[in-house]
Amino acid sequence: MLLRHTPTTQSQRKALHVNPAKACQPLGAMCAALGIHGCLPHSHGSQGCCAYHRSALARHYKEPASASSSSFTEGASVFGGQPNLLQALDTIFSVYDPQVVAVHTTCLSETIGDDLGQITEKARKDGKIPEGRVVFGASTPSYSGSHMTGFANMTKAAVASLSESTGRRSGRVNILPGWVEPADMEEIRHLARELGVDPIVLPDISDVFNTPLTGEYNMFPSGGTPLDDVRATGDATASLALGERCSAPAARWLDAQRSVPCSVLDMPFGLKATDRFVDTLRRIAGKPVPASVERERGQLLDMIADMHQWLYGKRVAVCGDPDQVESLVEFLVSLDMRPVHVLTGTPGKAFTKRIRSLTSEVEEEINVKAGGDMFLLHQWIKNRPVDLIIGNSYCKHMARDEDIPLVRWGFPILDRVGHQYFPTAGYRGGMRLLEKILDALLDRKDRDDPEESFELVL
Ligand code: SF4
């Protein structure tokens, strides 16, 4: 009964967040930087920030997350962190020798006003960056946006700093998958290749955060977008940005500065969003959808049709990051489920508008909030209970207190495994997501059914 004191009466709160439903920008920046092969993320701030962000990633993925820190102390906090960053770059290249160092700011260095571009330039002039090695930076002030914003800022900084344009189109397609699981990135790449598209997936944390156990430790895992591919994004034929918040800023930058036309799509979670992704790939490739992809789609459709009776009318509370949640809500509505409470910690009016549009035909009042917190979600659930909660591990407290089944989905998942290895994106991923939802609902039914309706065959 950890949250037993949550009251049902909601009062107006503007300045106070209780149990936030988001993390800070540098966490997302660190994750995006780790999606570039041979890249060491560098946190320009105090050690505590870097330790928190590394541990958040390591706890979610159950893999080490390497990163370095400018290790600010009192002096740097007052006079600025330039000497710390110059020393750090010296040490990083002497000890770890990464191909790329991706620097991001923190609250502290942003408040001081450190200029990453100027410091990096000085490091170059002072000979602290070896020949052939790359350092770039992203501004990630933690007091605006969320970890999603940091992911987007780092992805945009990567293409803005590293992409090159020769004036010739390569025929390749940039796919900016946003912050999804490594297995989702593999699924997205699988669909692109089935459609005959040669993708540059950026960033790409597959084979970074879902590596096999080999008995050997590699500071820089085999995965991540190769540096040459990051450079080649400027010559691509098209960009597909999956997610308005995570991916669109980088794709729009490539469109405006490198003349790579971009399409901004929803993340391919669920049938309809995956259909739009596949259709866009089909038009770019100029080829029909292959039978292999039609088969995957047909299997998902079959599963939905077979199990619809257990999904119909079920009321769901959803909490997570906006790009993911928008696709999920569309999927739930398409299953005839009712997402009645929908909350994201990332601020932004567009989210509320989109969710209202997606749920316009649900015959029930929908609670929606962008920039909300877990406390509010719990209050909503107390006032109007649901059959299912879908969200990250932090939802487990309210799920337990209210005795509601929970499907863990999103970031972070601290108390389960599988999200790294099994996708929920694409058609095959949609089947897994559906399986998780059905398992939660049917396990609850088996637990609660009286003996006379306790069935072996459903
Ligand atoms: S909110 Fe600021 S101080 Fe706190 S971990 Fe994030 S960057 Fe560091």
Notable traits:
13 strands, binds iron/sulfur cluster, 5-stranded parallel beta sheet, 45% helix, alpha/beta, 458 residues, globular
Describe this entry's structure for a reader.
By secondary structure, this protein is an alpha/beta fold. The chain has helices at residues 25-34, 47-61, 74-79, 82-95, 107-112, 116-125, 147-162, 182-194, 227-232, 248-258, 271-285, 291-311, 322-334, 349-358, 374-383, 396-402, 426-448; strands at 39-44, 68-69, 100-105, 134-138, 173-176, 199-201, 238-242, 262-265, 315-319, 338-344, 367-370, 388-391, 406-408. The strands form three sheets. Strands 11-10-9-12-13 form a five-stranded parallel β-sheet, sandwiched between helices. Strands 2-1-3-4 form a four-stranded parallel β-sheet, with helices on both faces. The chain has a four-stranded parallel β-sheet with strand order 6-5-7-8, sandwiched between helices. Strand 7 (238-242), helix 10 and strand 8 (262-265) form a beta-alpha-beta unit. The protein is globular and about 80 Å long. The two termini are 33 Å apart. The model has no long low-confidence stretch (mean pLDDT 97). The structure holds iron/sulfur cluster. Residues 24, 26, 49, 52, 106-107, 142 line the site of iron/sulfur cluster.
